[in-house]
Design brief:
Number of strands of chain A: 11
Strand content of chain A: 25-35%
Structural class of chain B: alpha+beta
Helix content of chain A: 10-25%
Order of helices and strands of chain A: HEHHEEEHEHEEEEEE
Number of helices of chain A: 5
Radius of gyration of chain A: 24 Å
Distance between the termini of chain A: 86 Å
Oligomer: heterodimer
Order of helices and strands of chain B: HHEHHEEEEEEEEEEHHHH
Distance between the termini of chain B: 101 Å
Shape of chain A: globular
Number of helices of chain B: 8
Number of strands of chain B: 11
Largest sheet of chain A: 9 strands, mixed, barrel
Radius of gyration of chain B: 28 Å
Chain lengths: 291, 327
């Protein structure tokens, strides 16, 4: 009897198993610190590139223009109280006099600004903006860097954020979100616990991942710089993802979901795009107008 | 006794004891080389892709909704990396062109289709033998735009591929992110007249976060934009989604002399849209510089726009002169 087919199969299977494990890079257990467990690298200097909703972000929209925001009657009433005279009078749309409330935790990453992102410590990611001069701290729960993937994110963040003092940037709880794991084959072949390609891929970790952030404990702020409001009951869920464009430039895309039971009829979902810069040479602090 | 597999293992062990003879060593090396080739072939197969995006998706109108619904304002290119050459072309464009009977049923192309106010349907086709994804297809309700992503790793467009509205797309999964590259597109003008040449390409990344789908579109065009134009389209999952048929019958919808081609003479672009929204006319000319935060400082130095009433009066006068020329 020739040994070649059997030995070859065994070695091939072993090679496949090793390569799957190596390529997938499945972590045996969550590392204790978020910085070490990072699935993507967000650190560095970034500039927002405003190619969407330019008229609502780069200039102050006209008073009463809240198109696109699922604002209810109470919210519209507050937005209509915006006073252009406080922000440059006739030229309020291009005066660049911007109320600090437009840089609140629910809207900071929609504003045209540069960002500096660093690890403040092993479990805290710090985001600073030059326009508005704001600082956000994204707090990972110690020894729990990953979201569990089963409970809604706001529920996972609830305990960590409980009792925090409300502020313009609120309190942010962060998690790394791992991609879905491969599902096990329903008909694993071979002896129980081995054999069959389905069994080999089951449970293997896929590459990639993103950062999820849940922010609560916010003071009232603005979704747009013309006074479109959000309330202190707002919860913001953000997903940060990185990608590279065809020129090789690195980007962050953040998807921002604002849930406000007071002024919004549905969650308000938008995105922000930031391109990496080599250094902080263009960092230009601009203060905002205190409310 | 035992299974053939176990018998094989016993025999293999026995043979392994005699491995120090030169002939067996040679055989083993041959065997190893053969196995390496088999292993490489197995490993080279694409990982089982996750179909995370199948189903119906409603467009979210929270950003750029005004452009999806009513259409963008003419002469508003703020925030677009449009080149001067593209601007020259765009300034002769008239939205009335889309109402020509010859163009009424033309679909948006792949670069612009996602900016329509449409339900999106995504579905996959798998190879029945390998269970690997062969294609992922998308359709949008408006104009029944149909795209097909070739998921096989060996399906780059052959050189003779014709250019089409939706182009030729290849896709792959990187983790749970769908990467799509599209080329071989027909030249196209958007609803605001932004031209794209037939050299334009698009790279996309589809992310799914729960019920939210994000399509990041990176459009490159060496002829008409100065850098990749990054654009995110958002969708929300529609469990009971539906796309109605889209029969299109062309008909004259605007009364105008036969043979009229709507267009603007150079210098006669209508700018009331940007003026209504308070967008400085210089910013409305677009260009890469309008996309960065420092442009907010620059806009402080720009002169105020002319009053809307004056703009409308000038436009009316220009339209009357153009009508005279056509008679």
């Amino acid at each position: 009897m020739s040994l070649r087919p059997i030995a070859c199969s065994a070695l091939a299977a072993a090679a496949l198993l090793l390569s799957q494990a190596g390529l997938a890079g499945a972590p045996p257990a969550p590392p204790p610190e978020a910085q070490k467990a990072a699935l993507i690298d967000l650190t560095g200097n970034w500039v927002s590139v405003t190619g969407q909703d330019w008229r609502y972000r780069m200039i102050t929209p006209a008073k009463g223009d809240y198109r696109g925001v699922p604002l209810n009657a109470a919210g519209r009433k507050i937005a209509d109280e915006f006073d252009p005279a406080k922000y440059g009078g006739d030229k309020y749309q291009t005066s660049a006099i911007i109320d600090c409330r437009a840089y609140g935790g629910a809207s900071l990453l929609r504003m045209p600004t540069r960002l500096r992102i660093n690890w403040a410590d092993a479990n805290t990611l710090k985001i600073e903006s030059d326009w508005g001069e704001q600082t956000r701290m994204l707090n990972f729960i110690p020894n729990r860097p990953f979201a569990d993937g089963y409970q809604p994110l706001p529920m996972q963040a609830q305990a960590a954020a409980a009792g925090k003092t409300p502020s313009l940037q609120g309190y942010s709880v962060a998690f790394w979100e791992q991609p879905y794991r491969y599902t096990a084959s329903a008909f694993d072949r071979g002896p129980r616990g081995g054999g069959g390609l389905g069994a080999l891929t089951a449970g293997a970790q896929q590459p990639g991942g993103n950062l999820a952030v849940v922010t609560t404990a916010l003071t009232p702020g603005w979704l747009r710089r013309n006074g479109v409001p959000y309330s202190e009951k707002t919860t913001v869920t953000e997903r940060f993802q990185t990608f590279t464009d065809p020129t090789g430039a690195q980007w962050i895309n953040v998807t921002i979901e604002v849930y406000d039971p007071v002024y919004l009829t549905t969650p308000f979902i938008t995105t922000g795009d930031f391109m990496k810069e080599p250094d902080g040479a263009k960092w230009a602090p601009h203060s905002c107008k205190a409310a | 006794m035992g299974t053939p597999f176990l018998q094989g293992r016993v025999e293999l062990k026995k043979k392994a004891k005699d491995m120090n003879t030169p002939s067996l060593k040679t055989n083993f090396l041959r065997l190893l080389a053969a196995c390496a080739a088999v292993s490489a072939a197995l490993v080279a197969q694409p990982a089982a892709a996750q179909s995370l995006v199948d189903g119906y998706w409603n467009p979210l109108l929270h950003q750029d909704g005004w452009a999806y619904a009513g259409g963008p304002d003419q002469a508003d290119f703020a925030g677009m990396p449009i080149t001067p050459a593209a601007l020259t072309v765009a300034y002769t464009w008239d939205p009335g062109q889309a109402m020509l009977t010859s163009l009424q049923c033309a679909p948006f192309n792949a670069l612009y289709g996602p900016r329509s106010l449409s339900v999106l349907r995504i579905w996959e086709t798998r190879d029945p033998y390998t269970n690997q994804q062969a294609t992922i297809e998308t359709q949008m309700g408006f104009a029944a735009l149909h795209r097909k992503f070739q998921m096989s790793p060996h399906t780059a467009p052959p050189p003779w591929t014709q250019h089409s509205w939706e182009g030729y797309s290849t896709g792959k999964w990187v983790g749970n992110v769908l990467w799509v590259h599209t080329e071989k597109l027909k030249a196209y003008s958007t609803r605001v007249g932004q031209p794209f040449s037939d050299k334009a390409t698009m790279d996309e990344r589809f992310f799914r976060y729960g019920d939210v789908l994000v399509d990041i579109m990176m459009i490159s065009d060496p002829q008409y934009i100065s850098r990749p134009w990054i654009y995110s389209k958002l969708y929300y999952r529609a469990p009971n989604g539906n796309i109605d048929p889209y029969p299109c019958t062309a008909s004259e919808q605007i009364k105008r002399p036969k043979g009229t081609i709507p267009m603007h003479m150079p210098g006669h672009i209508e700018v009331d849209g940007p003026v209504r929204n308070g967008i400085p006319l210089e910013a409305a000319r677009g260009g890469e510089k309008t996309m960065y935060p420092e442009y907010q400082d620059y806009m402080k130095t720009l002169p105020a726009n002319p009053p809307l009433s004056q703009v409308l009066k000038d436009q009316l006068k220009a339209a009357e002169e153009a009508a005279k020329l056509q008679q």
